[in-house]
Amino acid sequence: MDDASDVSTTPKGRKLTEHAKESLRRHGFNEPFALVDDVIDNATRTTTQADGATVYIQRSGGRGKKYNVVIEGEEGIVTGLRNLSKHELDNLGKNYGFDPHP
Amino acid sequence: MTAQCLLDAGGYQVTFAFHNGRASREYLDAVVELSLPAELGAVAVKSQPTFIAVKDLQRLAAYLGEHVAALQRDPDRDAPLFVPLELGFQLQALSGDVDSDNDGEFTLRFMINVGQPAEGSRVYVGAESTVEVVRIREFIASLEGIASESSRSR
To answer: Complex ipTM, two decimals?
Structure first.
């Protein structure tokens, strides 16, 4: 479970950083990480972190009250988080310098 | 690299047990444990294994140092919530009485992420108590030491 994935790109060819290969699995993204492509391609919002990384935010959950997030930097996909609450998303935005509600 | 960092908040303790991630050296693999002393029931809860960015360790040290400095000007200050990118824990430094960079105390609320039920929200378990500034200084020094050691090992 904690070993890094052997998958180095998403099904649509987006490169995964070494960290993403470990962290995506830990955060409930299953190989081949098609959900990463889905969050990016069907993002409800897209914004930019203070360090320049792109943050893709997609509404999720049965009632659309949760959020899937994928962060992509210059080296590729940095990480992803599933089913964030609004409070968690807002706090990530405050800590990482992005507006979660652009 | 394996290392531990201890935050002694008087009524509770938080222990960060770190080791280098296998794939990325910018992140440390960690388990965060929150524990209460025997007189409070000796409860101990561990976080899910989580990654913590070295930058987040540096950011946490700065967050606490800035709060100690700010409380000397404004004792009513509640700092914003601190979260690392991977959400393995969260903490908030609250108001207090701080007379100098090494003397005083303030309230610290600390929560650890114990997991997430299938398709549910993450569950955080935590504690709140006052912490002495001298203990915060020790914690900051240990965070900076681990961040520095990790940076050198890259």
So the answer is: 0.91
